[in-house]
Amino acid sequence: MANETNNFAELISHCKEYGYIFQSSEIYDGLAAVYDYGQNGAQLKKNIRDYWWKSMTQMHDNIVGIDAAIFMHPTTWKASGHVDNFSDPMIDNKDSNKRYRVDHLIEGFAEEQLAIGNEQLSKDILVSMDELLAKDDYAGLKQLIEDNKIKCAISKTCNWTDVRQFNLMFSTEFGATASADDENSKVYLRPETAQGIFVNFLNVQKTGRMKIPFGIAQTGKAFRNEIVARQFIFRMREFEQMEMQFFIRPGTQMEWYNFWSAERKKWHESMGIPAEKLRFHDHVKLAHYADAAMDIEFEFPFGWKELEGIHSRTDFDLKQHQEYSKKKIQYFDNDIDAATNKPYGNYTPFVVETSVGLDRLFLTIISLAYAEEKWLKEDGTEDSRVVLKIPAKIAPTKLAILPLLKKDGLPEIAKELMDDCKSSFMCFYEEKDAIGKRYRRMDAIGTPFCVTIDHQTKEDNTVTIRYRDTMTQERIALSDVKKLIMEKIN
Ligand code: GAP
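^ thats the input. predicted complex w/ glycyl-adenosine-5'-phosphate below
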């Protein structure tokens, strides 16, 4: 049995080395908390997105998908509350001028205390922080930082400013004649995709003849000027969300909130995430639009953190857009209410939202997949490999086709197999280097199946198939390769 280790720093450099993730504009020393996905990363990200999209839209006959623009009328963000409320409490160290998100500063301190065995202090400080955040008690938060002598990582001093709010939205100017100080031409880069769904509620409901309860799903970029952006692609300034707003009858929100939290956790498990690595965490401080909210947390290599948010958003957003746009946004429900024996009639629907970060899910998948393995060979010497055990159904490349030699007609057979398979799934063709080296490279990229064409293939039309996770090999008919891979990835 292989001996496995899992190391976050190694994972980050592996992602770069094998074309998964690069720092943005790296030749100019990068841009903080912005990343580019390479040839393998882009494909894995697309596969995860497609899996989500299919399970939301194709597998639910009452959910449809849209693709709204990133730019939205600036009033959208006034109505949604983001201009006034989308901010985080921040604190600056006066000696280093370094700015911290207050919750991150305190959480970092709690983690340090836990690491040195001060479990009770670690717990107590997090409980106090949650209580103070829930009350927006900024003076209390500063006091908590000072009482615990929490220091700046750079200056090592406790010389802090007061706690202040900092808006996280990026803005830019719209139109050729716009100038930076012209408030009328200011537009925001959307900080969540959800508002594109809310403003299209009536368009979709009417053109799709949707009946409540129904959902609108969307995937797309979102932008937040995160102050403390860290932990690789966990917290980025430009990231992608996969959100679904589920429109329901007022009063049924808790039933749907419970339904979607359980459903989403099950969905993550269907992606191969072990149940014991997922947990629910109820929000103490609710966002301005929510009457209940929870996170589905994953145990990342740096601790338990939010992977997905489930929010009961009430009728807040639709009502706000109705008020600011002065357009009636309501639904006529002609189902009969058993209590009154009359149709439910006109109302503003309530909303339960599921919102998962695509990049965060990518990080979840890849950190679970990454393994450094060592084992003893039969001759007593040690062997090792680095492998990405990405579930076959979402792996970027499904099959590597490897002729043993570059001659004797083997490449021709391999290319014929490639032509047969490539319209059905992603294949990779490679004829350079020794076969063992090529297998290791495919392990490192996460390709679940390799097929080797050798001289025996010419005699009996069989090939060797090698399985990434177990490294076992078997001989199968060349004509069965495509069918077998299709079975494994579906
Ligand atoms: N529409 C609701 C909403 O945006 P959120 O909890 O702020 O709620 C939802 O974000 C999800 O988006 C999070 O659970 C996380 O997966 C992802 N996310 C949020 N901020 C992120 C960031 N800076 N970088 C990467 N992913 C982020």
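The mean pLDDT is 94.
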